[in-house]
Amino acid sequence: MKDRLKDFVQAHRDEFDTFTPRPDLWQDIAAELQQEEVKPTMAVEPEREAKVISINWHHAWRYAAAVAMLIMVAFSAYYYMNNGAQPSGTVAATQPVPLEKIAPEVPQLETRFASVIEQKEAQLREYDLKALGMDKEWEREAATLDSAYTELKKELYTTPNKDVVVEAMRDNLKMRIAILNRQLQVLENIQQVKKQVPNETTSI
Amino acid sequence: METLEYTDVNAHIVARCKEGDRKAQYELYKLYSKSMFNVSMRITNDYTEAEDVLQESFLSAFRELHTFKGDSTFGSWLKRIVINKSITKVRSRRLQVEPMDDFQDFAEEAPEYDQEDMDYKVETIKKAIQSLPDGYRVVLTLYLLEGYDHGEIAEILSISEATSKSQYSRARKKLLSLMQEQSFFS
Fold this sequence. Notes:
With about 200 residues, chain A is mainly alpha-helical. Chain A is about 75% helix and about 0% strand. Chain A is elongated, with a radius of gyration of 26 Å. Chain B has two domains: about 1-95, Orthogonal Bundle (Rna Polymerase Sigma Factor, Chain: A); about 115-185, Orthogonal Bundle (Arc Repressor Mutant, subunit A), CATH 1.10.10. Chain B is built from eight helices and no strands.
């Protein structure tokens, strides 16, 4: 039996595919694939290794921050147990003092790193991170580092052991540069692969 | 010949995907996401569910890529994944609202329409497909749009070939009557 409806549909088949998924769905897929890859970290090729390390950095600094926090808590606890009774011990912590007086090295540190970070971020922005599904990952890492840095800066005003905090802040800034470098390297690799392989297109 | 060429081009990208090449995976996504999304849209009839299906399908395709032996094209392999996941969604949804009875007969039979009189329009057909009951819609789109024959549909839905045929014929009648209503009201 001739099915006129079927013939018509077949003739206009392409016109039936009118829906489009949300544009950032690929990022979610890529992020999940990335997570799965991180688990088996052994035996990876150079390009993938770069990506994996960038995640490990992410973890490493977290551990570093956690350890720094623990040390700070321990120090403060120790300090307050010994000096808690003396009011002079807490006065300094509650009064607003300019940062320069507490840790003159911090503003220096910030200006020194800021220009490098800015330059790398500008380089990174030249790539179409969204298309590669890397923008979210990068945003997340940057945001976590930012908030940790702000926390550390607050910590400076109350900590009895500012050297530890300043050291953690310096590590935070260094980590940021390291991550930026990793990202740039990954992007460069991708760019090279792109050049080697001409665009393949097919119809479905 | 065209099919052969098409398989070859994909085979190259698929090989790179097997090595976890993210760029190659993105190539396949770009190539297939839209059509696969529409396949799932037609079965689930739900934008959010179709997006979930699309995401899950690409993830499991990349995960299970080593099981893809290349005896079909990557596209048709992926399409089967999308269809299976979409059907699971529809079935679990039906389970939530009513007892599972996938392909129940609809008692009221639509009256016969003289289809030769009918002037088909893509828009009208699409709208009518969207208003079909789940069971009808699935069989009808698999047959009309996804290009499966009744034997294949029977296998996909675990029903008999005869059921697929009768279900399609009922779905088709219902569709035509829905189209008639639409043109009446417009």
